[in-house]
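ok trying this again, last paste got cut off
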Amino acid sequence: MNTGVEVALLVPVAYLLGTFPSATLVARRRGVDVTAEGSGNPGASNTFRLLGWKAGALVFAMDVLKGALAALAGLAVDGHRGAYVLGVAAVLGHVRQGSRRRGHRVARVVGGTFVRGRHATERLDGIAGLTPPGRRPRPARGWRPSSA
């Protein structure tokens, strides 16, 4: 089967993966409705404020994992193109969670989409915008060292 067709068939799966309501499930297990309390946004920040850092960290990790799983599936099927396509599908599913009126913020799922580098430093670069050791960022155009 053509890899483009395989990626197209996986887009709905990646979208549904993005709609997984991690904050709602974590909060519901503790008897709290995150959509009715706090900011009303079912995300890691609101979960952190309502239930503490452990629950917030769990939601954060689950959100990153949604994007990472979708991107890794795309990477396995069609390389970088597949990773971006399925990662974007997961992000769109995260933003617009099915019939919910309000979706999540996308930073964690986008971060998970870019967790696909070969080395740990590349993963950090994708998540935090860091420059891996041994690589120097290019100076801005017109930049010259000062002669101090």
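PB: full thing came through this time. The first helix runs from residue 3 to 18.
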